[in-house]
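Thread amino acids onto this structure.
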C-alpha cells in the first residue's frame, strides 16, 4: 500500500466494456497530477525565477558526479541557494536521507532543487516528504521520476517504495542541453526505462484514453530518437525528442498503475542490486512477448509507435540498435537467482494482463538471463 492507502499497482480502474448491443462504454477514473513544466533548450536560464516561485532558501542536490551542475545551479540562483548538496546515491539509502534532512534543517532550506537522474530526484523526494519542502526538478536522464509522486529508499537491504502527493515536483525544468554529456551507455537504457513506463501504461489496469495517447507518443519519440542519441550524443534535435519522450514516460508512470515488468525490475534490482535502467532494458522485450496474446491492442499500439509489426521484436531490435546489454547474466544477475526472483515476483504480484504463473515466469527470466531473442 502507498502512503495514501492505495495499492501501488492498482489505481482506480478504467476499461472499455462492450455492451450486448455492440456499443462500447468507456469507464475510467483519472487523478491528473499538477505540475508546472518548462521545456526548452536553454531552460536552465530560467532557474532563478522558477526557484523563486517555490522559496528563498534552496538546497541544491545532485549526485557526486554531477556536482558541477549543482554548483552551476547555485550560481544561477544566487543568494537564494543556501546549500549545494552533491551526495545523492543510487537506491537512496535511508541513512543518506537522514543526513540530508539534518543538512536541510541546519541551513533552514525551504525548497529543494534537484539536478540529475532518478537517484538525485529520489533523494529530493525523500527530503520533501520528511520536511514538506517543494521540489524543482531538473532531470538530466530519461528516468521519468520528476513527473511522479513515487519515491523509493533502501533500509537494511530492502527497497521500499512509497507514494505521496507532497513529493510530486512542483516544477520541472527540461533543458535538452543538459543531456548532451549523458554517455551513450547511460542514455540508451535510460530511454528504454521511459519506454517501459509507456508500454505498461498502455495495458495498465487503470489505463485511460488520454494516458494511452501520451504513452504511444512517448514510445514514438523515444523509438526514433534513441538510436540517433547514442550515435550522435550532441545532436540537440535528437536529445530534445528523447527528453520529450521521457517527459511523457514520466507522466504516464505517475498517472496509472504499472504491471509485471515493473514488478520484475523492482524484484531484480532489490534482490540482486542490478542496475536500474539496464534491468528495464533487458526485460522489456520479454515481458512484451509475455503479454502480447493477453493485451493485443496495447502491444499493437507499441508496435505501431515503433514502426514495426511485432512489439517484442521491435523492442529487442531497438536494444541492439542502441548497443544495450540484452542478457541479465551480463548485468550481474546470478543464474541461481532465477528461482528466487520467481518466488519474490509471484509472492505479492502486481496486476498483469496475462496471468503470471511460476513456470511461465521462470521461462521468461531464463530467456532474459541468456539474452535470447523473445
Ligand atoms: P541515476 O540517477 O543513478 O543516474 C545514472 C547515471 O547517470 C549516474 O551515474 C549519474 O551520475 C549519471 N548522470 C546523470 N545525469 C548525467 C549527465 N547529465 N551527464 C553525465 N552523467 C549523468 O539513474 P536513473 O536511471 O536516472 O535513475 C534510477 C533511479 O531512479 C532508481 O533508483 C529508480 O528506482 C529511480 N526511479 C524512480 C522513479 C519514480 O517515479 N520514483 C522513476 C524512475 C526511476
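Threaded sequence (374 positions):
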Amino acid at each position: 500500500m502507498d502512503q495514501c492507502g492505495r495499492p501501488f499497482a492498482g489505481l482506480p480502474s478504467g476499461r472499455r466494456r462492450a455492451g450486448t448491443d455492440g456499443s462500447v462504454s468507456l469507464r475510467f477514473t483519472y487523478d491528473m497530477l499538477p505540475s508546472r513544466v518548462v521545456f526548452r533548450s536553454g531552460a536552465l536560464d530560467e532557474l532563478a525565477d522558477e526557484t523563486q516561485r517555490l522559496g528563498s532558501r534552496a538546497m541544491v542536490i545532485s549526485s557526486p558526479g554531477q556536482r558541477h551542475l549543482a554548483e552551476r545551479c547555485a550560481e544561477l540562483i544566487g543568494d537564494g541557494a543556501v546549500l549545494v548538496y552533491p551526495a545523492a546515491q543510487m537506491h537512496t539509502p535511508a541513512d543518506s536521507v537522514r543526513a540530508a534532512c539534518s543538512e536541510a534543517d541546519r541551513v533552514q532550506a525551504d525548497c529543494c532543487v534537484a539536478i540529475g537522474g532518478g537517484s538525485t530526484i529520489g533523494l529530493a523526494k525523500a527530503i520533501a516528504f520528511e520536511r514538506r519542502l517543494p521540489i524543482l526538478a531538473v532531470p538530466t536522464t530519461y528516468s521519468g521520476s520528476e513527473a511522479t509522486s513515487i519515491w523509493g529508499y533502501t533500509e537494511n537491504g530492502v527497497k521500499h517504495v512509497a507514494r505521496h502527493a507532497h513529493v510530486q515536483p512542483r516544477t520541472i525544468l527540461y533543458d535538452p542541453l543538459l543531456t548532451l554529456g549523458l554517455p551513450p551507455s547511460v542514455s540508451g537504457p535510460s530511454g528504454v526505462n521511459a519506454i517501459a513506463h509507456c508500454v505498461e501504461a498502455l495495458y495498465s489496469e487503470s489505463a485511460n484514453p488520454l494516458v494511452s495517447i501520451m504513452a504511444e507518443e512517448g514510445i514514438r519519440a523515444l523509438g526514433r530518437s534513441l538510436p540517433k542519441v547514442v550515435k550522435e550524443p550532441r545532436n540537440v534535435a535528437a536529445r530534445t525528442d528523447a527528453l520529450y519522450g521521457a517527459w511523457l514516460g514520466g507522466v504516464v508512470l505517475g498517472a496509472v498503475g504499472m504491471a509485471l515488468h515493473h514488478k520484475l525490475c523492482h524484484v531484480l534490482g532489490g534482490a540482486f542490486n542490478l542496475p536500474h535502467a539496464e534491468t528495464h532494458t533487458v526485460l522489456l522485450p520479454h515481458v512484451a512477448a509475455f503479454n502480447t496474446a493477453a493485451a493485443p491492442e496495447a502491444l499493437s499500439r507499441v508496435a505501431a509507435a515503433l514502426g514495426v509489426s511485432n512489439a517484442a521484436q521491435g523492442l529487442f531490435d531497438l536494444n541492439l540498435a542502441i548497443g544495450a546489454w540484452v542478457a541479465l547474466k551480463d548485468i550481474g544477475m546470478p543464474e541461481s537467482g532465477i528461482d528466487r526472483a520467481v518466488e519474490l515476483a509471484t509472492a505479492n504480484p502486481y496486476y498483469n494482463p496475462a496471468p503470471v504463473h511460476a513456470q511461465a515466469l521462470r521461462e521468461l527470466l531464463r530467456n532474459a538471463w541468456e539474452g535470447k531473442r523473445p
